[in-house]
Design a protein that fits this description.
6-stranded mixed sheet, 6 strands
């Protein structure tokens, strides 16, 4: 029904030498096996992608993500010990699975996917540049400068990005 793979060398290399950031994603497999490929990737010291683990499962839902995360945490260790932060694109069932398996972990969203949703309601190069400027900010102060400029251009866009959508 499912298969999970986490090679010892990848696990040990990630835990020992990579940043505590884990990107989670999934994609459809096509061909004989029409299942889902679930992946956990890290970032190495050269800002390169570092494979941690992957799995093939029947669907992207809370049950399969929970199963994948339980296996992953069993391999790489607890959030409490390592301070893992997860980044994702809000896959089906992933947020509830993260809340179940690693409730004390930080969870962030992929800016590319946030922007794809953001631009549906907020058009224009100025808002795009302000959003990406905020996303690339290295300090809270710089982030706030971009967000204040965005609020001047569009309060609704700023509120949505801050998670305070008025809808």
């Amino acid at each position: 029904k499912r298969v999970y793979v986490c090679l010892v060398a990848c696990k040990e290399g990630f835990v020992s030498h990579c940043r505590p950031l884990i990107s989670l994603d999934a994609c459809h497999l096509k061909g004989v096996v029409a299942d889902q490929l679930l992946v956990a990737m890290g970032i190495d010291g050269n800002d390169g992608m570092y494979p941690i683990a992957y799995a093939v499962a029947e669907a992207k839902n809370k049950e399969t993500w929970t199963w994948f995360l339980e296996n992953l945490i069993g391999d790489i260790g607890s959030v409490r010990d390592h301070g893992w932060c997860f980044i994702s694109d809000q896959q089906k069932g992933l947020l509830p699975a993260l809340a179940t398996v690693v409730p004390d972990a930080y969870n962030r969203f992929c800016v590319r996917h946030l922007f794809a949703n953001f631009k549906k309601n907020h058009q224009g190069k100025e808002l795009k540049d302000l959003m990406w400027g905020a996303a690339k900010s290295l300090t809270v102060a710089t982030f706030e400068i971009y967000m204040k400029q965005m609020e001047i251009v569009s309060k609704e866009a700023c509120d949505e990005l801050r998670g305070r959508s008025l809808l």
